[in-house]
Amino acid sequence: MLALLLALGSSLAYGCADFLGGLGARRAHVLRTVLVAAPASLTVELLLWPVLGASFGVASLGWGAASGVASAAAFAMLYRTLAIGPMNVLSPVTALVSAALPVAVGLLQGEHLTAAGLVGLPLALVAVVLVSAGQGAGSARPSRTALLLALGAGAAIALQLVFLHQAPSGSGVAPLIVGRAVSSAVTLAAAGLMHRRLGPERPAYAMSAAAGVLDSVANLLFLLAARSGDLTVVAVITALYPAGTVLLARGVLAERIHRGQLAGLGTAAVAVGLLALT
User: Residues 143-159: pLDDT tens digits?
Assistant: First the structure.
């Protein structure tokens, strides 16, 4: 139950971070938003160091660095996917892969589900797809390149979570710090190479920083959840993060929630209830 609650908190934090980051990216180039969010994220993780501890052993350094590389790759491919579209088709693909791959890894590592879990897990994967899909999903056919990028982005997100899960349980927040440092370095390098394309617009500093803080909170809650529960359950609950984004868009921007997304929210509630029984 503790792992489930932590995973739900991680999902909510990821959804809020994506919402704020998306709003920030409307005002300036997305890399400018990330250049504010990344230091804010790293600051939070460094502040957590004295509280939760950090052991920078070889394993925690290796898995943390791998998660940082995966995070940077996920950002690059997802950004390119957003540019190509259509996202109402590609977003569910990305979300499904990001949920299904950690589930497969957990099962291969010997994790087992109860009867309720065997029903709740597929329902949760269906909910991920429904909540991620916008209006008119399926009305446009994506190119092969766009589909491959969406699959790659989902796989990179999944690998980031798997790598964090593989880090030693006694390493504290070391994997998060190392991962954030690596992904920030990659982002800074990309911004340096693309500085002429970033435009003159200033980022929304407060909004971007808040997105970074929430992303760190989400990563921390996922790490704690994965250390106290099964990756199969934790990963699929965390992958429900689009639900938080959809609800915030409804409450703040008055965006309409479509029927498929409503069905996804209901399916998610049922799936979470079933997984709580595992």
Answer: 788 788 888 888 998 99
Q: Give CA–CA dist 202/259, Å, rounded.
A: 37
Q: Directed axis angle between helix 259-276 and helix 242-253, to 10°?
A: 130
Q: How does 205-232 read in b/e, with b if 16+ C-beta sit within 10 Å? A: eebbbbbbbbbbbbbbbbbbbbbbbbbb
What secondary structure, in 3-state letters, does 226-237 show?
HHHCCHHHHHHH
pTM for the predicted model, two decimal places: 0.84
Q: Which of 53, 248, 77 is nearest to 160 (CA)?
A: 77
Q: Is the dihedral of CA 195, 198, 203, 207 positive or negative?
A: negative
End-to-end CA distance of the chain: 9
Question: Are the C-beta atoms of residues 22 and 208 closer than 8 Å to each other?
Answer: no
91-118 confidence digits (pLDDT tens): 777 878 888 888 888 888 888 878 888 8
